[in-house]
Amino acid sequence: MSLDPPGLLAEAAILLLAPIAGSAVGAFARRWPDDLADWARGRSRCPSCGTVLGWRDLVPLVSFLLLRGRCRHCRAPIDRAEFGVELAALVPAGLAVLLLPPLPALLVAAIGWMLLAAALVDRRTLLLPDLLTLPLGASGLVAAWAGLAPVSVLASLAGALLGFSATALIGELYRRLRGREGLGLGDAKLLAAAGAWLGPQRLPLVLLIGAASALLAALATGAHRRPEEPIPFGPWLALGFWSVALIAYVELNPAVP
Ligand SMILES: [Zn+2]
After folding, report:
1. Using CA atoms, how far apart are residues 217 and 211, in angstroms rounded to an integer?
2. Is residue 232 domain-resident?
3. pTM for the whole structure
4. How far apart are the CA of 33 and the centre of ligand 1, in A?
5. How many Å lie between the centroid of ligand 1 and the Cα of residue 47?
């Protein structure tokens, strides 16, 4: 966190950006893959009455609170999940701003928002869109090239390759042993993106945090879940990716006492 006036201004901007990013994340996660066209044209409609919503209905967090969670036109309740995602996007931004100078904080927050979108889509569809994982991996390479990532370009490339091949290999072994899909190519691309941002030596920790949190979540919900019901691993991999990114950037930008 930076306390001089320009730093404070930049941090306020990141925190203001968070609910806007959260609103985009939520819209993407609800609409991918079929329903992106309307949204890309900048139109949002009330799902109940179909009215095209104006800017007053679309201010993240604020509109929901002012409208008390109901459509201005037909009074139908607005999906609370939208408000929840706008609020959730504040978590990576808040932690990053607290622990990092503004520029790395913005990078870590943006990684968090991309991963939030990937996690929400994976939870709903059991798929991780290339539209998210590939740009995330490419931006890791660019950040390493620009000196903005905690790795060299070479380590970034090696991390992407290792992340993809290791996950694809584990997935293939699991498929042969158990006769069903455990880890998909989407997971492999997500771990490749983690490798591109973080380098090969941090990947075991990403996987460890991902697997441990997935296991805890499976235990916590075990009683309510049928055994054959597939568990998406993407959200937990995303959590591991983001936690290790935060740690790596904090190591790179130690707080000045
Ligand atoms: Zn309406």
Report:
1. 10
2. yes
3. 0.91
4. 24
5. 7
